[in-house]
Each structure stands twice: as C-alpha cells, then as structure tokens.
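Final report, results section. Input specification for complex C-07:
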Amino acid sequence: MTQIELEFLIACNDSVVRRRPLLTSLAASLNVPANELYYLWAARKCPQRGTFQSGEWRYFFHGCECDLRHASDGRFVRIDFAPHGNTEAFTTWAVAQFIMASAAPWPDFIGLRAFLAEGAPPYNQGSASLEKAALLGGRLESAGWIKTADLELLALAERYTVPNGEGIPALRLPTDLPERTYFDILVASRKLISEAGLAQLSSAKDLATACAGV
Amino acid sequence: MDGEGVDPKSLNIVGSTQPEFYDGIVQEMREQLRTDPSAFWTTTLGEDGPIEIWEINGKRYLYNGNHRWRAAVEENVAIPAENIRIVDKTGSQIPTWPLHQMHRLPGKP
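Structure output:
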C-alpha cells in the first residue's frame, strides 16, 4: 500500500463521516428519516434543490445523488445513495470532490490534492482529475478495502437487460418486483468500505495515536 | 458526430424527470469529453451507472445522466451503447419536464 492510497481510504471514510450529520439534518428538513431520503427523491417527491440548517447549507438532487455545499466557505460533499436505504456509500469521484473542496473545520488533504489536481489552485469540487480519482478507487478495490454495494442486484439487472431494436440495452424487470428494487439497482454499484478497509483504517488510527504519544 | 455509439439526438429524448441542471457541470463534462472521451465514458459508467432513460407511454425522458446527455449533445459526440439503459415505465406518474422547459442554472451546485 502506498501513502497516497492510505490517505485516499481515510478520505473515503472521512467524506462519509462528515456528511452524516448533514444528511440527517437534510432528511429532517424534508420530513423523512435519513434512510428514506433516496426514495423520496427517486420518486421525485421533494424539491430538487433548496437550503437547510438555516440556509448554511444548500442541497441539489440530481440523478441518484445529492450535492451538499456550504453557502459561504465552499465545502462540498456529495451523498451517493446505496441500496436498501444505506447512507454510507460513496463514489471515488465524489470523494475526490470532497477532498478538493475541503476547508476548515474539515481536514486539509494537502498530499491528495496535489496528486488529484488537474491544474493550479484555488481548487473547488471540480478541480480533480476524473482518471486519477478512478485510479485510486481501483487500487483500493483491488486491495479489497472498498467493495461494491450490492453485486446481486447488479446481476439481477443484467439478467433482465437485453438490447432493444436500436441495439441499446433495455431493462424490463418482472412486474411483481417492488419499485424499490429498481431504485436499488440504480445505486447498486456504489462503493462501501469493506471489513478489511475498516481494519486498515483502525491500524492507521492506532499508528497515528502512537506517534502522537512519542 | 465523433466516436462510435449512439447519437444522443437520435434517442428522441423529449424531457426529463428533473426540472433543473447546472451549466457548470455540463461544461466540466464537455471538457472531460474533449480531453479523453473513452476515459470519460468508462469512468462515469463505473461511478454513476448508465444514462437511464424512462419510456413513459411511448415518450423518452432522462431519469439519470441529464448532465452527461447534454454534454454529449453539445460536444456532438456519440454515447457508447453500454452507457445507456432504456427502462419501460409505461403508466408511471412521475413528474416530467419537457427539455425546453428545464432550467439551466448558472455555475455549479
């Protein structure tokens, strides 16, 4: 494992940890529990964008995710929803966005920013290289530290996908499946930190604590 | 039309299931498409899944991938077929907006 890979794993975890209270707060402002937020938007039963926490944060739902941005300091974190109401998932691009836009009181990822940046500072959530973020994500996945949220759902979608007359994949799920199964399929490829990844994070934390004590 | 795949205009999209999109995200994607279209389509497929198109009562609406579809249209590039998925949603009551009534918001979220 390289230092930059470990730092990216830490950032994956940090992006999830930092957004937890925001996600809870946003869900409360839309009158749903956090694990229902995705389904609320998936059925388009809430405004696409707005503010919460007294206007301190802005949200913007699009596709199968929700961007959160601090109104004044530029901090940015994206909620990547996952199947079954799981709110702990991420994509490597979203983690890169979080890294590039992070500002106090969130961590300053100096090394990662230098690695991911496509140009010179100042940086924002769009300053990272998509390819470099994907490269780091791929390495973490190869190492077994992150994993795909739900491989069975992806297999289910594949089973019911056939090319249409235009040669474009067309999905036709059995009609007796709940609508939520379809919504879950849409986010089944999101990433989660694996048990091995959590163990790696724990080791890194222990090492940091030991070093601080020397 | 550059690249092999599906002409985004030939998909006959008439609208979307969301009312708004950000110009800044589209521009960012256009830049990525100009730099390395192959990497763009591979990476975004892995990260965000295919561009999801709902067929509702014979009409096609974007459900996921609004920014990607617009970036492809504006760059006049083809979308690899595997980056698109058509879903039969006949009878769906989800709200929809015609393309010309969508709001193009300035900047990024």
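The two ends of chain B are 30 Å apart (CA to CA). Chain B touches chain A through 40 residues (CB under 8 Å). This concludes the modelling results for the funded period.
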